[in-house]
Amino acid sequence: MDPLLLEWAGLILRWLHVIAAMAWIGTSFYFIALDASLRARPGLPPGVAGEAWQVHGGGFYRMMKYTVAPAELPERLTWFKWEAYTTWLSGFFLMIAYYYWNAELLLVDPAVRELSPVAAVIASLALLVAGYLLYEALCRSPLARSDAALAVAGSLLTVLAAWLFSQIFSGRAAIFHLGALLGTIMAANVGHVIIPNQRKAVAALIDGREPDPALGREAKQRSLHNNYLTLPVVFFMIAGHYPLVFATGRVWLVAALVLVIGFSVRHFFNARHRGEASPWWSWVVASLAVAALAWMTLPRAMAGADGEGRGATLAAQAREIVESRCVMCHAAEPVWEGIPLPPKGVRFDDPRLLRLEAWRIALQSAWTDAMPPANVTGMTAEERALLARWAASGSDR
Ligand code: HEC
Fold first, then answer.
1. Which of 23, 44, 112, 210 could form a cystine bridge with 83, CB 3.0-4.6 A?
2. What's the pLDDT tens digit per position in 286-299?
3. How far is it, in rounded angstroms, from Cα 352 to Cα 354?
4. pLDDT of 98-109, one tens digit each?
5. Are 360 and 353 in contact (CB under 8 A)?
6. Of 371, 375, 376, 377, which is best to mutate to test ligand 1, by the most ligand atoms within 8 angstroms of its C-beta?
7. Ligand 1, pocket-test mutation among 238, 330, 375, most atoms within 8 A of CB
8. Is the preceding omega at residue 299 within 30 degrees of 0, hence cis?
């Protein structure tokens, strides 16, 4: 496919994906908070379990939740599912247009595993399906009788998946796959459990039967998972832009810490919306985990970083490295096949501007090994150390 067409497809799909995800998470947060704020009071219509008043957009809303069917069902009943499906579908096609089409650069890292692009794409699809099936198996196992036991097992599965992804893909693709797996689980929870169970319950209510309570229990458990996964999944999706996260540390440890951060922050808001005493301790836990994450991903001390060379010599050596390892892609007219324009508009072909870019160069290729992608131009550890020293020196004279 024409690379420019691919670039446009990527932009439009990403736009759609972000908007759909905002709508999905927005409705999800809204209904969690609404559900928690419903209060019972005498005098509510029959079948209504609770009521909440809200003010928005110049008017008052009186929300009531029927837990059995109202005497008359309205003609129009709004279901909330397309937010989830659109998010997943746009994400799936974005994954193809971005990671699968550029598999050689973005999915594979020969330093991790020598894989052909086709093998990497097959591994990616197979692992996403396997991860989802394992989660389903956990939810249908006796473990699921306890929300807490299932949460622990599910978290361990996520951390294990992170480790496995990091043994197969580039660091960046590994952290992305974690987001893709959790996103798939969340969308499947909506499509395979929550909505079908709700349909069965509505059908039963319309027939005047008592819906099977197991249906509601199951849907509620999956909703709870989606509720707690929203913060981690978004982190994993944006982490691909932050090499300090994916290209320095251990992806499984990043995953574990992000789950702790996401779960504790969600827990805080869930408790608060239910009107319980605010569990302020969850911010302490989240802050400690953020500090641990930042500490863990600090650039490692580099061998050779205190080597010879100062000022102008150092600058000349740095320029030479960038010219031989980066400029084939990062120039006004890249010579690397399949890269028609400088990626992300980043150019290093004007040596006078190099000093201005020092920080970005070090971030991508000295403090982390995010660039060159898959180390296609064979950068050495000594070269990375030299770039780190040059960036830190702050002067070319
Ligand atoms: C094979 C081509 C190639 C080579 C060689 C290469 N890059 Fe890149 N670079 C890319 C691509 C592709 C992207 C865009 C990745 C993306 O889509 O997020 C990129 C993105 C970047 C970015 C922007 C990152 C962001 O998220 O804003 C920087 C900075 C960068 N590269 C620096 C470097 C440095 C420094 C080198 C040399 C050490 C280098 N690159 C070598 C292909 C290359």
1. 23
2. 999 999 999 988 87
3. 6
4. 999 999 999 999
5. no
6. 371
7. 330
8. no
The tokens for 380 are: 């050495």
Q: How far, in Å, CA of 363 to CA of 143, rounded?
A: 44
> Is 371 touching ligand 1 by the criterion CB < 6 Å?
yes
Instruction: pLDDT band for 77, please (50, 70, 90 cuts).
Output: confident
- Ligand 1 atom having least distance to the Cα of 334: 2
Can you list the pairs that 152-158 forms with residues at least 24 positions away whose Cβ atoms lie under 8 Å?
Answer: 154/225, 155/256, 155/259, 157/131, 158/182, 158/255, 158/259
Model confidence band, residue 127 (pLDDT cutoffs 50, 70, 90): very high
Give pLDDT tens digits for 26-59. 999 999 899 999 999 999 998 898 999 999 999 9
Tokens at 362, concatenated = 């070090």
Question: How many other C-beta atoms are found inside a 10 Å radius of the C-beta of residue 131?
Answer: 23
Q: What is the DSSP string of 66-126?
A: ESS--SS--S------HHHHHHHHHHHHHHIIIIITTIIIII--TTT----HHHHHHHHHH
> What is the rounded distance in angstroms from the CA atom of residue 296 to the CA atom of residue 293?
5
